[in-house]
Amino acid sequence: MTEKIKQGAALSRAVKALRSKGKRIVFTNGCFDILHYGHIKYLHDAKRLGDILVIGLNSDRSVKALKGSGRPINKALDRARVLAALGFVDLVTVFDEETPAKLIKRIEPDILVKGGDWRMEDIVGSKFVRSRGGRVFSLPFVKGYSTTKTIKRMHRP
């Protein structure tokens, strides 16, 4: 499963090889700190939009900046390993920047996907993907599933 985890030039080569075989590349990104059913459904639905699902995973530093000092619960490599273990996930890469904009430009996905909390016009990389003839989707959330809520429930007396 760790062969699905790629960085830098190895990631670029893998995506290029898949694209040369006519595969449509789907990209999404997130923290995926404590994986739950909402994540699984979202990622499964994202994969169904194309052939290859590439996940950009926020680094530990960027999760902390986004979610606060108590996060992430799980380290980046462990989060990447869990995602890579999913049969419908093809590639996982960790990014350290504030947004996945540079990663999206490197991968040049055919399809860009984010969760339902993102308005289409606010999805990072959407203009770039559309400018290349790609498509952008905002997939609905599964109600009742949230890593933040799970953590709060764990801390209740």
Account of the 3D structure:
The N and C termini lie far apart (37 Å). The chain has helices spanning 8-20, 37-47, 60-67, 76-84, 101-107, 126-131, 147-154; strands at 25-30, 52-58, 91-95, 111-115, 135-139. The chain has one domain (2-154): Rossmann fold, CATH 3.40.50.620. With 157 residues, the chain is an alpha/beta fold. It is globular and about 55 Å long. The longest helix is centred in the first third of the chain and has 13 residues, at 8-20. The chain has a 5-stranded parallel beta sheet, sandwiched between helices.
The CATH topology? Rossmann fold
Structural class determined from secondary elements? alpha/beta
Order of helices and strands: HEHEHHEHEHEH
Uncertain stretches of 5 or more adjacent residues: none
CATH C-level class is: Alpha Beta
Query: Mean pLDDT, nearest integer?
Result: 93
Helix percent band? 25-40%
Radius of gyration based on Cα positions: 15 Å
| Gross geometry | globular
Q: How would you characterize the largest beta sheet?
A: 5 strands, parallel
**Strands side by side in the biggest sheet:** 3-2-1-4-5
Helix/strand layout:
Elements: H1 8-20, E1 25-30, H2 37-47, E2 52-58, H3 60-67, H4 76-84, E3 91-95, H5 101-107, E4 111-115, H6 126-131, E5 135-139, H7 147-154
Parallel strand pairs: 1-2, 1-4, 2-3, 4-5
